[in-house]
Amino acid sequence: MKHKDINFVTSNRSKVTVLQRLLAPYSFDVRQYNAALIEPQANSVQEVATSKAEQALKLVHGPVVVEDSGFYIDELSAST
């Protein structure tokens, strides 16, 4: 089976190692593209990940992966 290359745009080597293990059975070669992407302040993880993916595509011409997670505390944004 032909290997497919994918670039994981992150400065976190541990994240790359995890993704390499997860995708190895599917013939993906995960390569780290070490870049610090600008992380906008947004109301959803989807907005942040979309922004990071758009930035990554400008740096890497080919398949890219970015990762983001978050948690929200509703009480901190509630008006009093």
Task: Tell me about this structure.
There is one protein chain. It contains three helices and three strands; from the N terminus they run βαβαβα. The chain has helices spanning 13-23, 45-59, 74-77, and strands at 4-9, 28-33, 64-65. The protein has a three-stranded parallel β-sheet. 38% of the residues lie in helices and 18% in strands. Helix 1 links the parallel strand 1 (4-9) and strand 2 (28-33). The protein is an alpha/beta fold and 80 residues long.
Q: Note the beta-strand portion.
A: 15-25%
Mean pLDDT, to the nearest integer, reads 87
- Low-pLDDT sequence parts: none
Shape: elongated
The radius of gyration computed from the alpha-carbon positions, rounded to a whole number of angstroms, is 15 Å
Percent of residues in helical segments? 25-40%
Q: What structural class should be given to the helix and strand makeup?
A: alpha/beta
Strand order of the largest sheet: 2-1-3
- Count of extended strands: 3
Biggest β-sheet, characterized?
3 strands, parallel
Kindly report how far apart the N and C termini lie: 59 Å
* Total helical elements: 3
Task: Spell the H/E element sequence.
Answer: EHEHEH
Detail the topology: elements first, then pairings:
Layout: E1 4-9, H1 13-23, E2 28-33, H2 45-59, E3 64-65, H3 74-77
Parallel strand pairs: 1-2, 1-3
Summarize the entry for a quick read.
The chain is of the alpha/beta class and 80 residues long. The chain has helices at residues 13-23, 45-59, 74-77; strands at residues 4-9, 28-33, 64-65.
